[in-house]
Amino acid sequence: MFGLRTVRVFSVVLHCLATANAIPNNDSPSHDLVARAFPPAPDLTIASWIWTTTAGISGVPPGTSTFRLTFKPDPTLPLANISVAISADNAYNFYFNGTLYGSGYDWQSPNIWTINNVPSTAPWVFSIVATNYALGLDDFSVNPAGMIASFVASSASLQRSYTWFTGQPGNTWKATDLVLENFYSPTLDDSAWPPAVFETVHGGGPWGFLPPPNAACRIN
């Protein structure tokens, strides 16, 4: 049984850890072949802001929410590199297959996290915990909250890349305000979690247009 906990202080990633898991199934309509410079960088301009409630864009109380997305890649595909661009108002931790890979603390400065040499022998589980901070030490009034992310999986041997992103039809993020212990575990059953709620496209809402994300860490 998983217990509940509150997560508001984010861990600093002291080093990069390599772990396993490849590019999405080529037959899946939700993944589009990217015809541009190889490999392309994940692009937040095609993504949308999401949260656990439609009120996120206008204002919710300070607190923490968790998001999960599971892919089942084609097991016949070779190793791939996965790059992830993320921003969250106000901060986030990013997990891949149960391992913490990155943290961000400034929604106006999105990050890119890259995981190299990922096999396709098991599903990929992407988990993000995002915290909406209070406006001040004594001010716990509602304020905007949101998360936006874009992903690219590339195969050097095939010279192919696939991209997907928050808000894309067919890629349903699960989201909840209950922060379960081990919410990032690949074996956690999230079937009862409700889907994340669309807030606005990139450039909309209180966030406007974000600058290009910075490459924060490369994992070999």
From TrEMBL:
The signal peptide here is 1-22
Gene3D superfamilies (UniProt xref)? Galactose-binding domain-like
Q: Which UniProt keywords apply?
A: Signal
- Would the keyword Signal be found if you checked this record's keyword annotation? yes
Q: What is the protein name given in its UniProt record?
A: Uncharacterized protein
Species of origin reads Favolaschia claudopus
Starting at the broadest rank, the lineage of the source organism is: Eukaryota, Fungi, Dikarya, Basidiomycota, Agaricomycotina
